[in-house]
Structure formats: C-alpha cells, structure tokens
Design goal:
Layout lengths: L9 H9 L3 H12 L4 E17 L2 E19 L2 E7 L4 H15 L31 H18 L3 E19 L7 E18 L2 E11 L11 H16 L3 E2 L3 E7 L5 H9 L4 H5 L20 E4 L20 E6 L2 E2 L6 H7 L7 E2 L8 E2 L3 E4 L6 H6 L3 E13 L5 E13 L2 E7 L2 E5 H6 L1 E4 L4 E2 L5 E4 L2 E4 L1 E4 L2 E9 L4
Parallel strand pairs: 7-17, 8-15, 14-23
Antiparallel strand pairs: 1-2, 1-4, 2-3, 4-5, 5-6, 8-24, 9-10, 9-14, 10-11, 12-13, 15-16, 16-17, 16-18, 18-24, 19-24, 20-23, 21-22
Length: 484
C-alpha cells in the first residue's frame, strides 16, 4: 500500500517547489563543467527537530529548515566549490560560474545530458518520517524516561533525555559517470539518555542511546527506550564503586559493539582515499601487504538496512557498497570518493560524503566493523590472567600520519585470574592503530554493531556513522591510569 512518503520523489519535490527541472539541472551542471574534468550539483532540503528534557521538564523544543545547493567543478587535482542557500535559478547559475572559475579552466558552458536513474538500494523505508511523528508522543516518551530513571535507583539526582530527528531530501546531478540525476530521502533519529547519580558527595554519570534511519516507533518497539534508560542508570551506579585504573602495558579485551569506535578512529580514517593519495596515512603504499593479524578482517558497509551510517547513494550519487579494507590481515582497499578514485586509478566505493550543501564531499566511512571470529567471548576473558576489559569508550584522538591514538574508556573492568572483577575509572588506551591490529590474538564470534549513536568529524564536517566489533583480545596495549 502506497504511503504519502512513497509519493514524494526528490526530483519532483525540487521541480515543483523551485522549478529545478531536469533540463535546468543539465544547464547548471554544464555551466559548472566548462572544460573541467568533472562537475556536479548537490541540492538539499532538510527539516531538523530537537527536544531536550532536563529537571523533569522540556527545556528545548526546536524545529529548523535548511536548504541550499553546492556546485563543484574539478580540473585535475584542483576543485572549485560554491554554494548558496537560495535555490532561485539566478543564484544557482552564479554558484556554477564561481565553481568553474575557481577550478581554473574557464570556457564556454556545455549542456550535459543527465539521464535519470533509479536508486540502487531501498535501505530505510519508513511509513512516517521521524520529524512528522506527533509532538505529544515524543514529549510523553521523554517524561516516561525521566520517571523510569529516577525510579531505577534512589541515588539518581538528574536525568537528561534528548530526542533528535531529521529528514533530508537531496538531489544530485553530475556531468559524467554513474552519478547522473539521482535523489534520495533520508530519515535519521537518535534518542540519548544521561543519568547523574550521587552518593556521599561523589557524583558519576552514565549515558546510553541509539537510533538510526528509522521512524519514531523504533524506540517503542521492544521497549528500547526503557533499555536505554536502565543502561544509562546502570553505568552511572557502577562508577560509584569504581577503583582507580592501573597503568602499564597489559592485555586488553575489547567488548563487542561500541568499542568498534577505536577501530573507526585508529584504523578507519587511515584507510580513506584522500590521506592515501597524499601519502600521509600510516597505510599509504601498503596495498597487498600484511598490516594486521591474520584474524583481522575489516569491512566498511553502507548498505545495511536502517543503520545510522547507511545510505542508498553517497553524496556524489554513487551507490554505497560493501568494501573489504583488510582481509585476513592483508590491506586490500581504501574508501574512495570520485576525485581520489580518479587520481589513484581505483574504482569508487560509494564513500563520498558531506555534512551539508555547504561542504564539498570527501572520502568518509559509513558502517565500519571487524568481522567475527570463532572464539567464545567468555573463553577469551578466561585466557587473560591480568588485564583490562573495556566495554565502552568516550572521547579520543588519533594522528592519521602514524596512527597513534589515545582513547578514554567510559566503562572498564579489571580482569584477574580469568575473571572480570572490579570496575575502574580513568583508564586510557594509548597506542598505534597499525600496531594494535598486529597484536589481536583472539576474535570472538559475537560481532555486534553499535546502537546507532556515532558521529564522525573530519576537516570540520560531521556525518553519522556506524561502528562494530566482536569481543577481541589485544596483547600488550599501553594503559594510562592512576595506579602503577
């Protein structure tokens, strides 16, 4: 049965509202192309909604609409990019001329054929956009979260719950290649719960959440909202009895799911095409070489239905795909956008992404994870006489040129005599991404993707991503703590 959303097509949306018909798009792309190697246009209309509950009341309720277009021209390694938040034809024509002038190959405008093409995937079919769900239902849910969190433990002092949703309508047209005129409608939503507890003057915080390219009902299914809430409270209460983390070189076991953020930061960015084209990545020039333990296979997959990092097509109109980056320890691929794929003589992988029409695309991850192995996760823990079990991470930093990273564990435990014992606080993991991969000695069969909370930053742009990991044992990581 067709829904109202089924009847909204990006091509028709922009033609009806702004007069951007296929023929006008052809002319605009042609004006940007001139004698350049390539040109494209990215048109966007996005509705964003945010609700925030604190102290038992909704303190923020906002709804914003943004729209605009970015025009790009490429000549060899030189890129001209211009954008406008006014979709009137004269402003788009000016942006096209500016992009062409910046690219450095002025010439007569060319009219380029831009045939239509169906979307290759249908990864996030929802019957109702998350921004369209009833406001009363959303406010009621935040109230239920507050009540449940406060009832979970008498030490709860504060509850903060936020619900963020958006719907992005995009339309792209290109002068050549597989990214001809193509549109997409992208829903996205995320629920976050933060709980603060206090005991004898000591305060601790727990945070949990999730979401994806789903509708509002996703949080009601299987009482996900309640699980998120209880988990945030549990994390906070556990930290009240946490010991100071030990320091030194030790065996570390990473739990499944969100700890894949370490893989994303310490390894994933180094496998993006632009860093490798410029020769600044720790993985540059190492295709076909062993870079990790034979137990390690790393995948970037933008085609997993409803996942936060998934896209029907990337922001250059290229279908997303499943890219094997490391296969049984051997480096076999990079994540590419159009520009870097062309300059490296490699195929595109559907990883050209941008934060909005105000930004040019660049190679970015989608959902990046390590494949499962064959080990029993409990046996992996039993194999460690003394070490650290890290199940959640907070902030971190990584140097792309050498892969060195520092990550703080937001939830971690001691492993003593093959058993998980006391929780610890203040643990940081310090090392090099390429080196850590060679130290993976056990890989569990429990691959898990994160709940849908990841946001990746690069060159001032933020995009939603997914991460994943099975339980793994890493021998000899430097752990920074307070107890030696």
């Amino acid at each position: 049965m067709a829904t109202a959303r089924d009847l909204v097509q990006p091509e028709r949306f922009f033609a009806d509202r702004y007069g951007l018909t296929p023929s006008r798009l052809e002319t605009l792309v042609g004006a940007a192309a001139g004698r350049s190697d390539y040109a494209d246009i990215f048109i966007e209309h996005q509705v964003t909604e945010e609700l925030l509950l604190e102290d038992g009341v909704v303190k923020k309720a906002s709804r914003t609409i943004s729209q605009g277009a970015g025009v790009r021209a490429q000549a060899s390694v030189r890129t001209g990019y211009a954008y406008t938040d006014d979709l009137a034809l004269e402003h788009l024509e000016l942006a096209a001329r500016q992009a062409q002038a910046i690219a450095g190959h002025p010439g007569e405008s060319a009219v380029v054929a831009v045939p239509g093409r169906a979307r290759p995937h249908d990864l996030y079919r929802v019957t109702e956009a998350p921004v369209d769900a009833a406001l009363e239902a959303k406010v009621a849910l935040l109230g239920r979260i507050d009540a449940l969190a406060r009832a979970a433990d008498p030490r709860v002092r504060q509850v903060i719950a936020s619900l963020w949703s958006s719907e992005q309508v995009v339309l792209m047209a290109a002068s050549q290649g597989g990214g001809a005129q193509l549109g997409d409608i992208r829903p996205l939503t995320r629920l976050n719960v933060t709980v603060l507890v206090e005991e004898q003057g000591r305060r601790e915080v727990g945070t949990f959440g999730g979401g994806g390219r789903v509708d509002f009902g996703f949080f009601l299914e299987e009482d996900r909202w309640a699980r998120f809430t209880r988990e945030a409270a549990r994390q906070a209460v556990i930290k009240l009895r946490a010991l100071n983390a030990p320091a030194g070189t030790m065996t570390v076991v990473l739990g499944p799911g969100w700890p894949g953020i370490l893989l994303h930061e310490a390894v994933g960015h180094g496998l993006e095409g632009d860093f490798n084209r410029k020769g600044v990545s720790a993985f540059s020039g190492r295709l076909g070489q062993p870079v990790a333990s034979e137990l390690v296979t790393v995948i970037d997959d933008g085609t997993i239905p409803n996942r936060r990092g998934s896209l029907n097509v990337d922001d250059e109109g290229i279908p997303t795909g499943r890219t094997v980056l490391i296969d049984k320890g051997v480096l076999c691929g990079y994540m590419q956008d159009r520009l870097n794929a062309r300059l490296l003589g490699m195929p595109t992988t559907g990883n050209g992404r941008r934060e909005s029409f105000q930004h040019p695309p660049m190679p970015r991850m989608t959902n990046t994870f390590m494949l499962a192995g064959e080990d029993d996760p409990e046996e992996i823990i039993r194999s460690v006489s003394r070490g650290l079990y890290a199940v959640a991470f907070g902030g971190g930093q990584v140097d792309i040129t050498n892969g060195k990273f520092v990550f703080s564990a937001s939830e971690a435990y001691l492993i003593e005599g093959g058993r998980v014992t006391a929780p610890v606080k203040g643990a940081t993991l310090i090392g090099s991404g390429p080196d850590v991969l060679t130290r993976v000695s056990r890989v569990g069969h429990d691959l898990k993707l994160d709940e849908g909370i990841g946001t990746c930053g690069k060159d001032g742009q933020s995009v939603p991503v997914g991460v994943g990991l099975p339980t793994i044992r890493v021998d000899g990581i430097t752990v920074g703590g307070t107890e030696v």
